[in-house]
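Re: the 254-residue chain
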Amino acid sequence: MYTAVTTSLDGHVAVIELNRPPANYFDTVLIGEIADAADALVSQGARAIVLAAAGKHFCAGANFAVGEMADDRAESSLALYREAARLFDIPVPVIAAVQGSAVGGGVGLACAADFRVAVPGTRFHANFSMLGFHHGFGLSVTLPEIVGPRHALDLLGAGRRITGEQALRIGLADRLVPDGEQRAEAVRWAADFAAAAPLAVQAIKHTLRGSLAARVRAALDHEHQQQVRLWATDDCRTGIEANLARQRPVFTGR
C-alpha cells in the first residue's frame, strides 16, 4: 500500500516506520504517506502512534543531491509543506523514536510529533543556516514552543549540532534511553495513552495544542517565501555545495 513507510497496529498502538534506510531522506511522497497512514490507523482504532525509522538514522531531511529538491526546490517544497501541515491534524498522541541523526527537516519532522524519545547516539542538527537558507517544516512555531526562543535561535541560527543528552537537557528530547531502546520505550509510552479513555485523550490534545495547526500553516507560508528568496543567493549555493562535498562553507553575505 505504501512505498516509503511501513505500518503496524498492535491493539491500539500503531507504529509508522520511515523505510528509506540508512538516511531516510524525505520528499513529498514520504511525508504524504505518513499523514495517510496516520489517518488510516486512527480510523482502524489506533489511540497513539509511534513514528520510527528503519536503519541507522531517523531522518536526514531533504536530499539536495538528487530527487525533487535538486530539481525544483520552490515547487517541491511547497507541495511537501502542504503534506507536512497534515501531520499537525493527527488527533492522537504521536511519539517519535529518534536514533542516529535528525538533520534539517528531519528535526522538523521530529518536532511535528508530540514527544521525542532519544538515545545517547542521537544527533539533532537543524543545519539550515549552514546551508545558507531559512528553516522550514513549521520549526518557526514548534521549536520555540519545545525548547524556548533562546535555544531555538541558537539551534537554528548557529546550525548547532547537539547530542541526545544535550537535547534532553533543553527539552528537545523528552526521554533518553540506552541506544537501541528508543522504539521499545516509545511503544511503552504510547501504550499508556492507549490505556486511557480515547475520546478524553483526543479532547485533551486538541485543547492543549489549541491553534498550533493554524499557526504552523501560517509559518509554513512565511518559511517557504524566505526559503525561495535565499535559495537564489550565492551563500546558499556555497552552503549546499559544501555540504555535498562534506566541507565547511565560507559565506560572503551575498
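The chain has a mean pLDDT of 96.
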